[in-house]
Design a protein that fits this description.
Two copies of one chain form a homodimer. By secondary structure, the first copy, chain A, is mostly helical. Chain A has a single domain, classed as Farnesyl Diphosphate Synthase (Orthogonal Bundle). Chain A has a two-stranded antiparallel ribbon. In chain A, a hairpin with a 2-residue loop joins strand 1 and strand 2. The longest helix of chain A has 24 residues. The two termini of chain A are about 15 Å apart. Chains A, B: Belongs to the FPP/GGPP synthase family. Chains A, B: Its cofactor is Mg(2+). Chains A, B: This is Polyprenyl synthetase family protein. Chains A, B: It comes from Paracoccus fontiphilus.
């Protein structure tokens, strides 16, 4: 899997660089390029593997992978703003509003969301019907009931009287991080107009495991390795999977989810080996 | 024209209300609905008339009109933020970040952009090819080289050593307000896959006249009537069409542009009467 992940990283970075280089030069473009540099590219990898499993060529899937990463980058830039999570460090570097300004961070995030939708409309992806299916599903994954909604719940939870319950956190994360991971995993079925059920089940398990692993890293992680601030949730008295389940309980739940993700991949047989490895990588990473 | 404008206002408001009502309840949804209430709906009207001229039914054009107004609403919510233009009044009411919070304003703007792209993918609009043409053109109108880019130039101009020249302001406004007006005017040709040239020329003239009228209103307007702060540009020492051309010069330029808009509509004959009236309305309005 690591070879394929490295190849996808290079491909998607090149695709993002090309798309951003086509924009007018200036601070806004610089900030967009900066926000799109680095990262694990787990979402791009999901797109590319989902596409491969459905007979979609890498060249067709690549704009979709780039769209998902551009969207993810926008969400990080806006989430890091002072009015939101107020983070000054991301991927080991100053966040966009620290390096430039809040105005530039707001505009760069806005333009990255736009760029993402534009990439989905790229003729290389497939026929118009395939592209419009992607646009509609993407709008669902991001919009009011998806990622943005999860982030709004997260912000609201900070001032709520009582810490969130396990059900509430699961629901919140299903929007905040789960919806985009699900979209990425469904890219293949969406382009090929195939049954999305197996990969939807896989994505829901992996997405939740991913968030549990993030909560574990916030407790056990090293800032020099993760490249972002750690210990923030504990300091803020925020309910997390670790605070609710304990460290061992959270690890056990993540392992159970990875087993569920494996089971969901059975219909694909050995061709889904990379996705099986990815599920493991998600909970074993240190960044 | 006024009857049709009132009808479009009611139709597009209903379409926006329906789309927003489908989202999960809460502060984010309330803020989105609030931001989408009121306004002149000039952009929606352009979409509906452009569609009618190309034989596109009102029901097909309506999601596109709603998309353009949702996008416009997002741009106002983000532009009003303290880090941007720092406005506390809009359409006679407190701006979203004043009424709720900066975090809610950022998220509501983000979700309104997403909603706009989702509306363009509505099957009611037309076949997938038509919808994907709209998505691609919309991404161009909003993205790095369109509206967001114009806003970035506007923010940069505030701290620039010298005031902008007439050419620079024309270019800036061509992005900031012109690109979305152009998209709206091209909705008909985009859906029907027809020649966009006449309406593109019309939109470029009307878009610039619209901005000149805004600059004139900032000098001559009444806050109680416009529903937004006036005199801000003069107070900030900002270069505007009025500061560069004088009040009479700006009025003459707006009139010249309206004549150019009229000329561009010749190929459509008398059927373009509403668009001719709209061009006049744009420079004669007091709000």
């Amino acid at each position: 899997m690591q070879d394929r992940l490295q190849a996808v990283k290079a491909q998607v970075q090149a695709a993002l660089d090309r798309a951003i280089a086509a924009l007018p030069p200036g601070e806004l473009r610089d900030a967009m390029a900066y926000a799109c540099t680095g990262g694990k590219r787990v979402r791009a990898f999901l797109v590319m593997e989902s596409a491969r499993l459905h007979g979609v060529a890498d060249d067709a899937a690549l704009p979709v992978a780039a769209a998902v990463e551009a969207l993810h980058a926008y969400s990080l830039v806006h989430d890091d703003l002072p009015a939101m999570d107020d983070d000054d460090l991301r991927r080991g570097l100053p966040t966009v509003h620290v390096k430039w300004s809040e105005a530039t961070a707001i505009l760069a995030g806005d333009a990255l969301q736009t760029l993402a939708f534009g990439l989905l409309a790229d003729p290389a992806v497939g026929d118009p019907a395939a592209r419009v299916r992607l646009v509609a599903a993407f709008a669902q994954a991001v919009g009011g009931a998806g990622m943005v909604w999860g982030q709004a719940l997260d912000i609201a939870a900070e001032t709520a009287a009582a810490p969130l319950t396990l059900d509430q956190i699961t629901q919140l994360q299903g929007g905040k991080t789960g919806a985009l991971i699900r979209f990425a995993a469904l890219a293949g079925p969406l382009i090929a107009d195939a049954d999305p059920a197996p990969l939807a089940a896989y994505a829901d398990a992996v997405g939740l495991a991913f968030q549990i692993a993030d909560d574990i890293l916030d407790v056990t992680g090293n800032e020099d390795v993760t490249g972002k601030r750690v210990g923030k949730d504990v300091a803020a008295g925020k309910a997390t999977f670790v605070s609710l389940l304990g460290l061992d309980g959270a690890r056990a739940e993540a392992a159970r989810l990875i087993a569920a993700a494996d089971a969901a991949l059975v219909p694909y047989g050995p061709r889904a080996g990379n996705l099986r490895h990815l599920a493991r990588f998600v909970i074993e990473r240190d960044t």
